[in-house]
Amino acid sequence: MQHLNNGQALANYQATKAFYPASIYKLLLLPSLFDKAPLDTWGQLIPTGSGKMVLSDCVDKMIRLSDNNCGAAVGSWLNWNKVQKQLSAMGLSGTNLATREDKVHTTAGDVSRLLNQWYQSQSGIPAGQFVLSSMQRQIYRKGIQAGSPGCTVYDKVGDLNGYRHDAAIVDCGDVSYSLVIMSKGGSYAQIADLATQINAIMAAG
Q1: Do residues 116 and 104 make contact, with C-beta atoms less than 8 angstroms apart?
Q2: Mean pLDDT, each 10-residue run in order, the chain (205 residues)
Q3: Separation between Cα atoms, residue 138 and residue 140, nearest integer Å
Q4: Would you give the DSSP letter of residue 160?
């Protein structure tokens, strides 16, 4: 968890522990997506497994609905090796997306770094605002969303084969912070409980 108003790292636990990212990888595509395609080009068609789809629709589906076909399509369109090269250049040394499926991994620290860098430098661009809107409206709301009452939560979950993650920017008005929770065998109730405890401290100032 990191305070975003002053950039001070406030708390972490096993931030460098490697996890299979599940759908959190869709967040890790964003830096390459923003660089390759400004929002005014998102009306173009990209290939998917079932034909072609408008890029903006596919990005919204992969974030808001966690659609796997669109996630894979956007990743392939960006080129996984190029995505990985950019993530490495950003300092996300605990992440590898350009490898065998069973070897793909990331860390809570890397996802936090991505969210923090994005918040500081990318969230003001139109494409960033588009994605934030999709994150705010995503349909899986039992984790950090449920544990942050009275705050606006922009988050993305990852949930597959026992891996259950939630990564968010939490805006409570005067206080904003990022929170990344990654687990194997955890539950959304546990994620919400931890988010509630953190929110009670952060929202209180």
Answers
A1: no
A2: 81 96 97 94 94 97 97 97 97 96 96 90 78 96 96 97 97 93 97 96 80
A3: 6
A4: E
Relative orientation angle of helices 80-89 and 68-78, to the nearest 10 degrees: 80
The torsion angles phi and psi of 25, rounded to 5 degrees, stand at -60, -25
Contact 75, 98 (CB under 8 A): no
Distance CA 132, CA 169 (A): 9
Give yes or no for a contact between 155 and 144, defined as CB atoms under 8 angstroms apart: yes
> Residue 181's beta-bridge partner residues?
166
User: Which string of DSSP letters, residue by residue, matches 3-69?
Assistant: ETTT--B---SSTT-EE--GGGHHHHTHHHHHHH--GGGTTSEEEETTEEEEHHHHHHHHHHS--HH
- Model pTM score: 0.94
> Is the domain defined by 2-202 classed in CATH 3.50.50.60?
no
Domain ranges of the chain: 2-202
